[in-house]
Write a structure and sequence with these properties.
The complex is a heterotetramer. Chain A is α+β, with helices and mostly antiparallel strands. Helix content of chain A is 56%, strand content 14%. In chain A, strands 1-2-3-4 form a four-stranded antiparallel β-sheet. Classes of the chains: A alpha+beta, B alpha+beta, C mainly alpha, D alpha/beta. At the B-C interface, α9, β14, α10 and α19 of B face α2, α3, α5, α7 and α13 of C.
């Protein structure tokens, strides 16, 4: 038998470098400490957190009802936010506002032309009163993070679309669907993946053989045609929520087989670990072995792969929407918004309609950085 | 389009000029050929050389004795150049048809008001309106130089359309009372069509794309794939890897509306240009080249077409077609890019792309017809939808001007249904009733109808306690503007307490739901603005797929009362009047009948309209001339074909 | 090894039957059929298909027959005659349609693959060797960015920029004058001029993820004892990296070569649609959308076959490059 | 072969410092080391893990893994041709140091499996050095490689060069490594624990080989090891390292027989302690052979099927345990000794039915006198038996769930068997910790806060939690440094006294067996070839294999070099 190299110095009460809190640090604390050192991952975590806060209460961050059309503000260009105003006497005061713009339509080309009206500005304030909504779908509220002091005056931080709907508010609202579709989709593939992978890996033998063949078969099916066919096959008269759920399910079809393989592999290798054998000899039941001893051992890996799977889902949703098979308006998701922007018209006359693309890129980047950092920090014991 | 026709009518077609607004009229006349023949007939330089090399017979031998003389829109042009145009990824064969495939026995004038001689240089119609004798042009030839005669037309009818292996049943256009017309050869250049009953619209139908069968199959070529004339068809089918001779025939000779019509470079045609690079599944472009035997000349005797050929590039995505347009890689295009929403973009890039915009007169009447299903399966909803006051209330609740401003860039006017304002049959009441935005009135009416109770969200409740709610089917991929307009309607209706769902569904499902009569409401574009008698679905319940306010009634009509549901008196009366108007050709009488129909339709108020279908646009390269500044846009007038692209030319 | 291959090949037969059936079911799943979509497509330009004509089309295509009969006819045709049926839309034999597009499909996808590898390998190795250097961070960021941008968005914007700002000719793979010209130097050059835009777009995404994988693989191998052994032999760093860790880190890629086979067809789908590339992807998409059953079915079947063959190929390749597996 | 001036050392290391900058500080892995290597002499660098011996060796060739780097000091390399170079001052990536590596100074490593490339043939890896440094053609290099393999006694070298690493056995791999190192006739050979991963008999062969080659070539050898027996066997000079510093150096005789430094003395003391039976055991009453056995294993077989092909058909079996009979009596320690692959670990695990035995009986006498066959027990009854029969694992890292606190780990058997919970559980865990010599307050800590020895104590506490009667200890001390090994064994013996425990002690280490066991079973290829009293088996073995095994173990006394004259067992 081989002598393993031992890293800790011999027989000292506690390793000398360790602070006392290190000794009682649980797995998650260790992961956190190691994760914290990753600057990019921390940034990703913060951005992700912010995005999910926005996704939780999108209406609070919106300035206008995202479905509110406005005939006088079609293809309204973005209005930059000015934080300070210059008073007539030349002094500068803090007074958030945007410049008002007036619409004229070119009689020949029909193109909307906006001119800034330097004399008029729209004053803004924080926690302004705006359109009514329900916080978390329950609590009625009218408060918005920022809004015009005059609720009849619309503001367009990121411009408006062809119907005069506020792009910023729509991005914020779309955030809810897009971010949750990733989360729910991954949760579903996780559920199937862990269940089947776990059964396969823990029990092995014939069940394993069957599940492995099923997984291989599913992996052999080409994804895109299946997506297309399934998405096209969805009964379109289903309620939006069910439809959304099904789209998510279709997207999660990509993920589960891969995840099941990972889980199986983990289970297979853990099954022969000494500490699992020890637990079995301790008399722990199968369930307890799985849930108390094995599952925590790869939970952090699962969390990392889940984090990395969410951006794939978000991108898949946009791709499906691009093909016209994903969610449909009036549902607002980033994919839907991008599909609406997906034309030469937008590039030429309203490039700000691509702002949802930036939102996708930011969200995907943040989640990838976060996931990458988590993956590196996932196993604090094997350093 | 052809339905049951059983009335007879006058012979002479004397419609007034309906579209005074249409610019530069391409008046074509039968100028005496002898007058022209004296001048040196001119032809394209490439043919001059070919003739000199004896590869081609001289022009005089190639042209018929009586060629069609075309009056150019602006001026006599010059030879040369290649027109660049775009097709969408697939199933866009009609994009080629519209440009080159309009060589029927008759053809439309530019104003879409009258039929003019086409392949036939004249015709006679009997008093019973059921016998049509067409006089073909002597000496006319297919694009391979083979003579075109009455035999070709007889072949089409007797051997092809009547062959049940090729056509299970003959196309409806050629049948009256369930029987296909008899086509007989009088002599080489005379052919007679005999129908079982009067057919007042026959000459117009012959000018539409579906009426072009007589000139579609050259006997000398297509008989090679017909078992009656060839005994090796089974082998040929096998060699071509297709299951039977029918498939082989369609592969080689095509049909009016299938891609393979443009997939065979060998098939002779009567078109100004013939296929040089075919339209197949793998094609990235389709190229057509000049037909040396084309049978039309300009007023100076120059053989048409002026332009050497046409290149259709195939864009998988409409956006790359748009890109080609704005970057000046397309010479003429309206198809796929002509939505109003695209207009600012296209107009702004006109200078960069070196093109100008021309206008297409929308043949449609209504931009978005909202059809409440008056024959809904659910009795409660049926009672509500069938109530005229309910529909009036909904109509008054719509702020049409807002929809026009936002969705249609202010380019339209509130409108219900019927012939367009420029049309002589324009019906003011049917077109304008209930279009005022009057939520107060709407609320009063709805209250009176028994929907006065409201729920927690301020939506009205039906007397049975359920929320007043319905879904409106719309196809987002087909008409994205309608989704936008419906979103606005939703808000307008919500303001009067009516809840509606914009039911965005995929197109196949839209049809399936319609066929099964499953829809609450549905929207579609309302056709018939310029051809109120050819497409009358919105004022007469005759179209089993299009008359969505009452599909079972339309089925009842088209099945002669065997299927569907019997319509109310008002509607039945309209179908009767319609049948009568279709069988006659006396325009004045037609107008009277039509007025009666529209009176009844206005009274019934079956569907709710939003606005007059706005005119669309197309682009033409600044060097490409003789393109009318205004032309109709319709399937019956398959733009730009009837504007005669063969007389377009490039300035140097 | 030979026995193994034969067994795997035999195993493919029932798999392919199952897959073909599933493919058929999937294509039939959406409501309506080819004729419905055909009518709807034409309706988009206000063109009207006659009701009787529609019924006739259904009879002609056999769409009025029960599903299982349609499947049976199709599969018998394939097995007995190698006949994949007639495309409803094009009235052309399916195999002809697919083959027509295969050559260019291969050109696009394989040049994408080459570019992806040519970029990803050196960058991945660099990133791993210089872990946490500025360069590593730069490429990591770039890699993630490449992963984050939806390819269709990139395609559209790049296409617009190339066309409008640089006057490039992007749609398609050839200039008009070369479209149908026989192959020549000029045509190849022309192809290369057109190829770069789609290849750059297609490669962006693939390269990004490949860099990540290569970097991770390399990091796993870099600190293995055998690398130290090689260093103790006096090999130069460059030679050492190339011969040992890179050689081992590359094995996981070889195992994915097989997975790329079906990608040859469907991989570039979305980008090809945006850029109007005359390759297989858009045809596949179109056939699925219009429910052109036999064409779509043949595509799906072809891709499944390629997946299965590819997996087998991967296993064989992996065994060839990795003696540990060969002798297992 | 070399005729340089004998007085001058070939390598002279002075005040070498190699540091590893880490977050928040610097680890001084080598901290002012000085010693010399001379031609034809073997210098053994000895020390426990983490003492810096390996980093010292790597510093010579400048192949310290990043972020480590030579900070200070000189490594002067005096060539035979009279030139000298300070290796420490060379650019680690430069051409100069590269021309030294492999050509003039060669190195071999501990794990031949992972130290050789898995995807290149052995021949390829050897010829590479030859073409690189000697500029040989491919053909010449191949011929030379075959010659080299023959020199290291690899049979059939012509075919062997085409083979891959994994096709070689452990000893062969190390031979191939040596062949590779010797390819360019280096003047210095650095061997970093080259025999640690090998069985003793194989180790003996490799040591023999190295000795012979050194004699033939007159190389200077720097031999790194933690095994004092090996040091005594081969060293001319010894350098003892502790925490990056040289604590003592001198001729082997002096180090072993007159050690000056307290650390050396402690180290040797521990080693020598294990050369004799334990004092604790010596003071005990011998266990009567008449007593009914606690565990009576009869005809135990454990065959693992070898499956092949697509349908996973069983084509053969690995007979890991093949018809084994052993007896364990209450209060005694049975040692099971054997080399890797002998089936001893499998046997240990079968006793608790971690594996399902293929055949045979494991008769276990319950406290009430009834006898259960563990091999065929029902689930519930097995659980009861497993409370009385416990296990201690080899790897103190892998056997403790890193995600549970020590208290949870030790309390787990009490909890799941419903014996204690709440504050009672807490108290019992505290008592157990105290019993194995750990601070009861540490129950809240996680395993990562403990050193290897402490972890092994936690493992013992877990085994003790259910008041067992029999403990199977599977290589319980192999992962520990020698200084900890004796402590751990003493603890186990104490506990045996206090709790009347019986041990089945599985080990490959004869000295450990001799120290702790009353009786010994020697396993070879799945069979027990010899059983008997520990004294008798260790001192006067009967079976040929046992003789070979014992004689291959190097004694920690330079005066008793005997490996060369060892008994060789050929089956």
């Amino acid at each position: 038998m081989t002598a393993k190299t031992e890293t800790a110095p011999p027989e000292q009460p506690t390793p000398p470098t360790a602070a006392s809190r290190f000794t009682t640090a649980s797995q998650w604390q260790l992961v956190w400490w190691s994760f914290r050192k990753h600057k990019l991952a921390m940034l990703g975590a913060i951005v992700t957190l912010m995005i999910y806060i926005v996704a939780a209460v999108p209406d609070f961050f919106a300035t206008t009802d995202p479905s509110q059309q406005n005939a006088r503000a079609v293809y309204h260009p973005p209005q930059p936010l000015h934080l300070f105003a210059t008073l007539p006497d030349g002094s500068t005061v803090f007074s958030p506002h945007v410049k008002q713009m007036v619409l004229k339509r070119d009689p020949v080309t029909l193109a909307p032309i906006y001119t800034e009206d330097p004399t008029r500005r729209i004053d803004l304030r924080f926690f302004a009163e705006g359109y009514a909504y329900h916080l978390f779908g329950l609590i009625p509220s009218k408060t918005h993070l920022i809004g015009s002091t005059d609720p009849r005056q619309q503001i367009f931080f990121l411009g408006s679309d062809r119907l005069g709907r506020d792009v910023w508010s729509r991005i914020v609202k779309g955030c809810q669907i897009s971010m949750s579709i990733g989360l729910v989709g991954v949760a579903m593939s996780l559920l199937i993946g862990i269940l089947l992978g776990g059964i396969s890996g823990y029990y092995g033998g014939r069940i394993d053989f069957v599940i492995q063949r099923v997984i291989e078969f599913i992996l052999a099916l080409p994804t895109i045609p299946i997506w297309l066919a399934l998405a096209a096959a969805l009964p379109q008269n289903w309620p939006a929520l069910l439809h959304y759920f099904m789209i998510t399910l279709i997207l999660s079809l990509i993920g589960w087989a891969q995840l099941a393989r990972v889980v199986r592999g983990r289970f297979l290798s853990l099954r022969t670990e000494d500490f699992v054998t020890a637990a079995r000899l301790d008399g722990a039941s199968e369930m307890r072995i799985i849930f108390r001893h094995m599952l925590p051992s790869f939970m952090s890996h699962i969390v990392a792969s889940v984090t990395l799977a969410i951006p794939a889902m978000i991108l898949a949703e946009t791709a499906l929407s691009f093909l016209g098979l994903g969610l449909q308006p009036p549902v607002i998701s980033w994919g839907v918004l991008l599909r609406e922007a997906q034309n030469i018209r937008s590039i030429v006359t309203a490039p700000w309609l691509f702002a949802p693309g930036a939102a996708v890129v930011i969200a995907v980047l943040a989640l990838n950085f976060l996931g990458d950092g988590l993956r590196d920090a996932a196993d604090p014991y094997n350093k | 389009m052809a339905r049951k026709r059983n009335n007879s009518g006058g012979l002479k077609l004397t419609r007034r000029q309906l579209m005074a607004g249409a610019g530069g009229m391409a008046a074509t006349s039968l100028v005496s050929w002898s007058a022209l023949a004296q001048g040196a007939a001119k032809e394209a330089p490439e043919f001059v050389q070919a003739v000199a090399d004896k590869k081609l017979p001289p022009l005089a031998e190639r042209l018929p004795k009586i060629p069609l003389v075309v009056q150019p829109v602006e001026r006599v042009g010059r030879y040369g150049g290649q027109i660049r145009r775009g097709l969408r990824g697939s199933a866009d064969h009609n994009g080629i048809l519209r440009m080159v495939g309009n060589q029927g026995l008759t053809r439309w004038n530019l104003e879409f008001t009258d039929v003019l001689p086409g392949v036939a240089h004249k015709w006679d119609v009997n008093a019973g309106n059921n016998e049509f004798t067409f006089h073909l042009r002597p000496g006319m030839k297919w694009s391979d130089g083979h003579p075109f005669t009455a035999d070709d037309i007889v072949f089409v009818f007797e051997d092809c359309l009547a062959n049940t292996e090729l056509y299970k049943s003959p196309p409806a256009l050629w049948t009256i009372n369930g029987k296909m017309c008899k086509v007989s050869k009088v002599d080489d250049v005379t052919v007679k069509f005999t129908f079982d009953g009067p057919y007042g619209m026959f000459l117009q139908q012959m000018a539409t794309p579906l009426g072009q069968h007589p000139t579609l199959f050259p006997k000398h070529y297509c008989s090679k794939f017909h078992p009656k004339y060839a005994n090796n068809v089974a082998d040929l089918a096998k060699a071509a890897n297709v299951p039977d001779w029918g498939a082989l025939f369609r592969l080689r000779c095509g049909d009016i509306e299938i891609p393979s019509r443009w997939g065979n470079t060998e098939k002779p045609t009567l078109d100004p240009w013939t296929i040089a690079e075919p339209y197949t599944g793998g094609a990235t472009r389709v190229v057509l080249k000049r037909n040396p035997y084309f049978w039309q000349v300009d007023t100076e005797g120059n053989q048409l077409p002026y332009v050497d050929g046409i290149t259709f590039s195939i864009a998988q995505d409409v956006e790359s077609l748009m890109l080609d347009v704005v970057s000046g890689k397309i010479d003429i295009q309206e198809r796929h890019i002509d939505t109003l929403q695209n207009k600012p973009t296209v107009a702004q890039s006109a200078q960069r792309g070196n093109y100008r915009l021309f206008e297409t007169i929308n043949a449609n009447s209504q931009q978005m017809s909202i059809y409440p299903n008056a024959t809904h399966k659910d009795p409660a909803l049926r009672a509500i939808f069938a109530n005229k006051d309910f529909r009036i209330a909904l109509s008054h609740a719509i702020n049409r001007q807002e929809i026009i401003d936002i969705v249609y860039l202010g380019q339209s006017e509130p409108w219900q249904f019927g012939p367009r304002p420029t049309h002589p049959w324009y019906h003011a009441k049917f077109a304008r009733q209930y279009t005022e935005f009057d939520p107060k009135k709407s609320n009063e009416m709805l209250d009176k109808l028994g929907f006065s109770k409201r729920d927690g969200q301020n939506f009205r409740l039906r007397p049975d306690g359920q929320k007043l709610f319905f879904a409106v089917d719309v196809i987002p991929t087909l008409y994205p503007d309608q989704v936008d307009a419906l979103e606005l309607c939703k808000r307008h209706w919500a303001a009067v307490g009516v809840d509606m769902k914009v039911n965005t569904i995929e197109r196949a499902l839209y049809y399936t739901r319609g066929d099964n009569n499953d829809h609450d409401f549905a929207v579609w574009q309302g056709p018939g603005g310029l051809e109120p008698l050819i497409d009358a679905r919105d004022w007469v319940p005759i179209h089993p797929q299009g008359s969505r306010y009452a599909i079972p009634w339309a089925v009842w009509y088209s099945s002669n009362g065997k299927e569907g549901a019997e319509p109310p008196e008002n509607h039945k009366r309209r179908t009767k009047l319609y049948d009568e108007a279709r069988s006659i050709s006396d325009v004045k009488r037609q107008g009277e009948l039509m007025k009666e129909i529209l009176d009844l339709a206005a009274d019934a108020f079956d569907a709710i309209g939003i606005c007059l279908a706005p005119n669309l646009f197309g682009i033409a390269n600044n060097r490409l001339r003789n393109v009318p500044a205004k032309m109709p846009g319709a399937w019956s007038w398959p733009n730009p074909g009837p504007s005669m692209p063969q007389q377009y030319f490039f300035t140097s | 090894m030979l026995g193994f291959i034969i067994k795997r090949l035999l195993w493919m037969v029932p798999s392919l039957f199952a897959v073909s059936f599933l493919a058929f079911v999937l294509i039939q799943l959406p409501p309506g059929d080819y004729v419905t979509t055909y009518i709807a497509t034409l309706a988009a330009s206000n063109e009207i298909v006659d009701r009787t004509a529609a019924a006739e089309l259904r009879t002609r295509f056999g769409l009025d027959q029960p599903f299982i009969v349609q499947y049976f006819k199709w599969i018998v045709g394939i097995v007995t005659r190698g006949d994949f049926g007639l495309s409803f839309e094009w009235q052309q034999p399916v195999s002809e349609l697919i083959w027509e597009r295969m050559a260019l499909t291969l050109v696009v996808t394989s040049s994408t693959l080459l570019m992806t590898w040519a970029l990803a390998f050196p960058i991945g190795v660099y990133s791993a060797v210089r872990q946490y250097s500025i360069g590593d961070y730069f490429f990591t960021f770039l890699g993630f960015l490449g992963l984050a941008i939806p390819s269709f968005l990139l395609a559209l914007v790049l296409m617009y920029v190339a066309v409008v700002l640089f006057g490039a000719d992007v749609g398609g793979l050839f200039s008009p004058e070369y479209q149908t010209a026989p192959w020549s130097w000029g045509k190849v050059q022309n192809l290369v001029e057109h190829l770069w835009v789609p290849v750059v777009i297609l490669a962006t995404n693939g390269t990004a993820s490949l860099i990540r994988i290569m970097r991770a693989n390399m990091l796993d191998e870099l600190h293995r004892p055998y690398v130290t052994t090689a260093r103790a032999k006096g090999l130069s760093e460059f030679r050492l990296l190339l011969k040992y860790p890179v050689r081992v880190a590359i094995n996981p890629f070889i195992s994915t070569i097989g997975w790329l086979l079906p990608n040859l067809i469907s991989g570039a789908l979305i980008v090809a649609v945006v850029l109007s590339l005359p390759i297989a992807g858009p045809l596949l998409l179109q056939s699925l959308m219009s429910q052109d059953m036999y064409l779509a079915g043949a595509f799906v079947l072809l891709m499944c076959t390629l997946t299965l063959v590819g997996t087998l190929l991967s296993d064989i390749l992996l065994a060839l490059v990795d003696p540990r597996i060969r002798f297992d | 072969m070399t005729t340089a001036s004998p007085g001058q050392p070939i390598i002279s290391i002075r005040d070498l410092h190699t540091h590893f900058p880490v977050r928040g500080g610097v680890v001084k892995a080598v901290d002012g080391v000085s010693f010399d290597l001379s031609r034809g002499k073997t210098v053994c660098v000895v020390g426990e893990s983490g003492s810096g011996k390996s980093v010292t060796a790597r510093s010579i060739l400048q192949i310290v893994d990043p972020p480590g780097r030579v900070e200070k000091g000189s490594i002067v390399f005096n060539r035979t041709n009279g030139t000298s170079v300070d290796l420490a001052s060379l650019n680690p990536r430069g051409r100069e140091i590269r021309s030294v590596r492999g050509a003039e100074i060669a190195m071999i490593f501990q794990e031949p499996m992972s130290s050789l490339s898995p995807v290149h043939t052995i021949g390829n890896q050897i010829t590479e050095v030859l073409t690189l440094h000697l500029g040989m053609s491919k053909k010449e290099a191949t011929a030379r490689a075959i010659e080299l393999l023959r020199a290291v006694e690899i049979p059939n070298p012509e075919r062997a060069i085409e083979r891959y690493t994994f096709e070689y056995s452990g000893g062969m791999r190390q031979r191939a490594m040596i062949a590779m190192a010797l390819a360019c006739n280096p003047q210095v050979l650095i061997a970093d624990e080259p025999t640690t991963a090998l069985d003793v008999t194989t180790q003996a062969e490799i040591l023999d080989l190295m000795k012979r080659l050194q004699a033939e070539r007159g190389m200077a050898v720097m031999f790194i090891t933690h095994d004092m027996g090996v040091v005594a066997e081969i060293a001319d000079e010894v350098v003892v390292m502790y925490q990056g510093k040289v604590v003592e150096r001198g001729p082997v005789e002096q180090i072993f027989h007159a050690p000056q430094d307290p650390y050396t003395q402690m180290l040797l003391g521990n080693v020598l302690k294990l050369e004799r039976p334990s004092q604790i055991r010596a003071a005990r009453e011998p266990v009567s052979a008449e007593e009914p056995p606690l565990l009576d294993v009869r005809g135990l077989k454990m065959h693992f099927p070898i499956r092949k092909g697509f349908f996973r058909k069983v084509v053969d079996h690995v007979r890991a345990v093949d018809d084994v009979d052993i007896v364990v009596r209450a209060g005694e320690t049975l040692g099971i000794v054997g080399e890797s692959g002998s089936g001893k670990t499998t046997l240990g695990r079968c006793l608790l039915r971690v594996y399902e035995p293929t055949a045979g009986q494991i008769l276990y006498r319950r406290p009430d006198g009834s006898v259960d066959d563990v091999a065929s027990l029902e689930k519930d009854r097995l659980r009861e038996c497993r409370r009385e029969m416990r296990m201690i694992f080899q790897d103190p890292f892998a056997s403790l769930n890193p995600r549970m606190t020590v208290g949870q780990i030790i309390g787990e058997p009490l909890l799941v068997n419903g014996i204690a919970e709440g504050s009672e559980l807490h108290d019992r865990v505290a008592a157990l910790l105290k019993r194995v010599g750990l601070n009861p307050d540490w129950a809240e800590r996680y395993p990562h806060a403990f050193s290897g020895g402490q972890r092994q104590r936690i493992g013992i506490a877990r085994a003790l939690a259910l008041s067992p009667r029999l403990i199977v200890a599977d290589e319980a001390t192999s992962a520990l440094d020698v200084s900890l090994r004796a402590q751990m064994l003493d603890l186990m013996l104490q506990l045996q006294d206090e709790l009347k425990l019986a041990y089945v002690f599985v080990s490959h280490d004869i000295s450990v067996i001799r120290y702790i066991c009353d009786r010994v079973a020697v396993m070879y290829r799945g069979k027990v070839v010899e059983t008997g009293d520990a004294e008798q088996v260790c001192n006067d073995p009967v079976h040929g294999y046992t003789k070979a095994l014992l004689s291959a173990v190097p004694r920690p006394d330079p005066r008793e070099r005997r490996i060369h004259a060892r008994h060789r067992y050929v089956n």
